[in-house]
Amino acid sequence: MSTSVFLKSRCVHGDMRVTNSNISHAAFVVALRLALTRSTRCFPDLFAGSSDSQADEQRRRCWLPATRHEDDAMDVLRAIAARRAVRDYTDAPVSRESIHELIDAAIQAPSARNRQPWSFAVLHDRDRIAGYAESARQWLLEHHREELGELAPMLEPPGYSLFHHAPALVIILATDDSTQSAEDCCLAAQNLMLAARKKNLGTCWIGLARPWLNVPATKDELGLPAHYPVVAPIIVGHPKHWPDAHERNPPEINWIEG
Ligand SMILES: Cc1cc2nc3c(=O)[nH]c(=O)nc-3n(C[C@H](O)[C@H](O)[C@H](O)COP(=O)(O)O)c2cc1C
Asked: Which domains does the chain have, with CATH numbers?
């Protein structure tokens, strides 16, 4: 499967047919420089090794390879169909590199006015995640028992792990609370979960953890920016097995005609 269809539109700037027949030599040189800069972003593999600075590496990562193959589009549909909420993980850790690749896919999401109002916090320490799962569980039962409703009994047993013993947790935060920033973060979250499926990694959005993660003391403990609202806490790990799909209800569709 490939997620590269997400990225199809990214390299239009890389079309750099520059001729020197109708522009001056100076303009040609400027145009060529610009084109080469853009090519470095759009075709990072061609230019790999040209710079070892961290900033260049960061910039390079923002441009994933594009493709025009129809098969890749079909692969996205397969990833959509095969993604599941995974709540049972093996002991294997998730590498930093893998998490980076998921975030690279996440940031290809569309966003209102291309503001890209997202930020990512990554915790990849299973023991710390387990400790926070317990803190969040206790906090929820203490402060939100009523709102939990029928979920309260599920959280009651001390052994219940809100983060399902996952080895990694990616928290997507909005960089502001303006209209549509949360929506943009949700789109990034879905990209991340589909990219994870492509890499055979399981994910599960843990909405229950969101209120606790937004408590100022929690943000302080985790080093999350106080003014960034937490939108999507997503656990990541290697699934012990892929759960069966839940049936989907037929969609309610109103064709607006006439
Ligand atoms: C916004 C949101 C919040 C969710 N919160 C939780 C959660 O707190 N704990 C959990 O185990 N699963 C949570 N899930 C996972 C859903 O239960 C799951 O996506 C749903 O049952 C459909 O199953 P599927 O993802 O395998 O298709 C959440 C999913 C979404 C989209």
From this structure: 4-71 (no CATH), 83-237 (3.40.109.10)
